């Protein structure tokens, strides 16, 4: 997968796995990583699917309707890529925290839905429920920050609450940050996620 890797200066910090939104690329979220933890190593990946020229992490049949078969295939593809990247770049595979926005948050959520120990934690900006009706792996001890907009036309508040219930049902600790905005990523939620990251991973 196309990607950027930047070595960190803080060897104890989690490596940040950056996952862009639809139409984005591996450079989009790099400034966020610097705000979340400047010393962290960064692995930023570009989605392998193109929708009218726009990179995504998996296909969709319509807005909000995912191609489930492709989602499963792409989630495995990403999980395998992470295993290889950890060997190539010598970062701790067990200390990887996803930071994803929109479509990137959805594949990040899908990693957590499908693979135990895929991630040590996650910051998911405006995620949806990636799949329904499947048992989740044990997510005990996995901290997850979710941000949501009460006026988000792509992810209605009930879907955020459903996602929170599913994650918590699997044992994860979830913090949901609400704002009265839509689907856009705001500076406020990035600040809230940075503070959460510092507290959660003890990176004062
Ligand atoms: C998706 O397809 O993953 C969601 O609708 C979010 C987006 O617009 O990318």
Automatic annotation (TrEMBL):
Keywords: Hydrolase. SUPFAM superfamilies: alpha/beta-Hydrolases (SSF53474). This is Alpha/beta hydrolase. Residues 82-178 form the Dienelactone hydrolase domain. InterPro entries: AB_hydrolase_fold, Dienelactn_hydro. Pfam families: DLH. It comes from the Bacteria. One of its GO terms (molecular function) is hydrolase activity. It comes from Brevibacillus choshinensis. The keyword Hydrolase applies.
